[in-house]
Write a sequence for this structure.
């Protein structure tokens, strides 16, 4: 960890009030970044917890108006966005396709895919103007290797991967990089509260026989967000303890 790797940079993290997003925010602050949390819940509380002048902005990533307002407030406070990490997202109940309600399907796809699109589109003009930026979209192993009863979630995360690959190719001749982070099961408050048999099953799925940690996620995303990540465009970085088959 370098204390000044992100010195002078402004990092926006959607869904950064908890879980992986909060872990990334903590790492970024420790490495010198000015962090801005865009979150629907407890954005200001997370920013206060981070300290170092972090800013929290209540943001609904599926609302074009809300995202535009969040970007405006960020620019007013700090003048730019150097890094975007789109960690806002939701899971879905386990259901066979014939039992998935259309409203449920739309909600998952709208949050995971459309929210990612709106946030990426919002920050791109400023990055293009300065010819620098790093965009990290958060997908999932399920987007690479879909699982039964997770059709809506898997489809939305697969779409995030495809979207980011297209974006990465569009930006390849600039100094803006767009890449995908695709984790497997990660140790978070949500997974810790699962019934013991379910937690044990998730732990045993990976060849390493454990869940990943938020700190490991933050370390990988830290590289993806850095200047060192220069020859990757539309790449998928998985963190699965050996579970990913490709």
């Amino acid at each position: 960890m370098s204390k000044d790797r992100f010195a002078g940079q402004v990092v926006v993290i959607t869904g950064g009030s908890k879980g992986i997003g909060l872990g990334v925010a903590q790492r970024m602050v420790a490495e010198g970044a000015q962090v801005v949390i865009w979150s629907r819940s407890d954005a200001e509380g997370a920013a206060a917890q981070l300290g170092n002048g972090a800013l929290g902005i209540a943001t609904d990533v599926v609302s074009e108006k809300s995202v535009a307002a969040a970007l405006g407030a960020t620019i007013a406070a700090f003048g730019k966005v150097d890094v975007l990490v789109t960690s806002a997202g939701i899971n879905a109940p386990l259901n066979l396709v014939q039992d998935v309600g259309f409203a449920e399907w739309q909600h998952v796809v709208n949050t995971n895919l459309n929210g990612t699109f709106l946030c990426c589109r919002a920050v791109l003009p400023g990055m293009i103007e300065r010819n620098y930026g790093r965009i990290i979209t958060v997908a999932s192993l399920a987007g690479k290797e879909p699982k039964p009863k997770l059709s809506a979630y898997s489809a939305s995360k697969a779409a995030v991967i495809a979207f980011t690959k297209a974006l990465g190719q569009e930006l390849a001749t600039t100094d803006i990089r767009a890449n995908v982070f695709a984790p497997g099961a990660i140790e978070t408050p949500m997974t810790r509260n699962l019934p013991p048999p379910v937690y044990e099953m998730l732990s045993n799925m990976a060849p390493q026989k454990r869940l990943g940690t938020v700190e490991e996620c933050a370390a990988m995303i830290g590289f993806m967000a850095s200047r060192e990540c220069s020859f990757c465009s539309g790449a998928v970085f998985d963190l699965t303890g050996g579970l990913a088959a490709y």
